[in-house]
Amino acid sequence: MFVSVNKLKSFRPVLPIGMVTVATQVRAAGHDVHVLDLMWEEEDEKAVREAVAAFRPDVVGISIRNVDSQNMLEPVIYTPLAREVADWARAERPGVTVVLGGPGFSTVPDDLMDFVGAEYGITGFAEESMVPFLAHLHRGTEPADVPGVIFRVPDGSYHRRDPVFEIDYRKAARPDPELYDPRYFTYSYETHDRSEKVPATIQTKKGCVLECVFCSNFLVDGTGVKFDDVKRVADEVERLRDEGLEVLEIVDGVFNLPLNYAVEVLREFVRRGIEMPWSCMINPGNVTPELVDLMVRTGCYYVEFGTDSCNDRVLRRLKKNFRQRQIISAHRQFEQAGIRVEHCLFIGSPGDDRDSVRETFDVMSGLVPPGAPEAHAYWTLGLRVCRGTALHTTAVEEGLLTGDERFIVPKYYVSRDVIEDSALLDEIQERVLANDNWYLWWGLRTIGLRERIRMARQESERIEAELLAHLPERRPTPLPAPLPAPLTTRGEEGR
């Protein structure tokens, strides 16, 4: 039995594509499968207990998409629900095995194992690991050789097997839409100025070619890129379209990196006559007239830019592959093509100060002015820090973190030149509120930014104390087990 604990509907609900992919794979291997998505449940405990009592699973897999809100101004932790699901399942089915997984789990596995009290966890590509893992449980043997597995050993430490970030797409089952809760496809959500349907989702590849200082994607998808075959991608889109789904989202971390693969996918769409409303995340540094033309011809209506900053010095510090001129050029190309653009930007990145923040705001004022019908800017104060990233090293070097934190409660980096500049914080608030196409925090008109920062810090401290009370003292971390031989992927065949 698989349970998704993501209940976040702000902006819009997101289909649990990872969990459903794993469930589809497990079912194809001959196991009985039941999927419970708590997104739509009003009474979580009742839903879990009833599902466990009816299905009587031997294994309950809990999918953790996000650990927290990733918003310093609105600190919310989602993992207590995972702990409750495990408790409710055990109450209804004593002896049931609890397994944790999902991208959120892969970023902080040890702390979540401790907090939830799970018997096992799987980091990395669970669609490759879950079937052999279940085979071990069926035989009554320890799954010590399963890639990505983590479990307790008698001395109280954890056995960990490093994940193998390789996938054979030829053997991987596509997520069965029948396993999604049907309420996703009747729900409408409000955007800035319209009502929209929840899109169907498809992933054309895993991983990323960039090394942005804040990104934890390497913990979830590994390094490098693993490509699906473009014909398989087009087959799946045709199937979704023919089943009547109206809107599609390509959920790659960045669709147009590498550019040649994105173009190849879209050329296949054009060849087959695929045209339906779709959206994706775009990197401003890899936008060409051909890419935009193909996106228009296949029905793209909305793109989200990972803009981060419009100051070249800050972009270099973040290790971005683009500069301000490319942000402006890419925006104008999509604008002229009639495709909506949303910019996602940080305030307080490494190197950010009064001058760089003002420059970023000035550029955005030109691209996303008040009243612009097809452009918006979404601002985030601070960058969430993940252990193992270059941003984590910077935060420790600057004395913002000690390096020994437990990341079950989020930690944020905000440059001192921003967070300690009261006049700048007031200016940020004033400029955001003056533009109806900009968003920073929903309550900014009634609670000032400086006051909200103070309140959020207090709330984070309270949450941290509460969660840490459920965690044991740190255990020694064992040496990682050696990696098995990798599978061959398209990425290894010369792409």
CA(first)-CA(last) distance? 37 Å
Report the β-strand fraction as a percent range. 15-25%
Q: Within the largest sheet, what's the order of strands?
A: 2-1-3-4-5-6-7
Largest sheet: 7 strands, mixed
Characterize the overall form: globular
Regions with little confidence, pLDDT below 50 for 5+ residues = 476-495
Could you report the average pLDDT, rounded to the nearest whole number?
92
Q: What value does the Rg take, in angstroms? A: 23 Å
Number of strands: 20
Based on secondary structure, the structural category is: alpha/beta
**Number of helical elements:** 17
Share in helix = 25-40%
For the structure shown, list the relevant keywords:
20 strands, 495 residues, 17 helices, disordered C terminus, 7-stranded parallel β-sheet, 7-stranded mixed β-sheet, alpha/beta
Can you tell me about this structure?
- The chain is an alpha/beta fold and 495 residues long.
- Helix content is 37%, strand content 17%.
- The protein has 17 helices and 20 strands.
- It has helices spanning 17-28, 44-55, 79-92, 103-107, 109-116, 126-139, 217-221, 230-242, 259-272, 289-297, 312-317, 324-337, 354-367, 390-397, 416-419, 422-433, 449-468, and strands at residues 2-4, 35-37, 59-63, 97-101, 120-122, 149-152, 158-160, 188-190, 195-197, 200-202, 205-208, 224-227, 248-250, 278-282, 300-308, 340-347, 375-381, 383-385, 411-413, 438-439.
- A seven-stranded mixed beta sheet has the order 2-1-3-4-5-6-7, sandwiched between helices. It has a seven-stranded parallel beta sheet with strand order 10-13-14-15-16-17-20, with helices on one face. The chain has a two-stranded antiparallel sheet with strand order 8-9.
- α1 (17-28) crosses α6, α2 (44-55) crosses α3 (79-92) and α8 (230-242) packs across α9 (259-272).
- It is globular and about 60 Å long.
- It starts with a strand and ends in a 27-residue tail after the last helix.
- The relative contact order is 0.11.
- Residues 476-495 have low confidence and may be disordered.
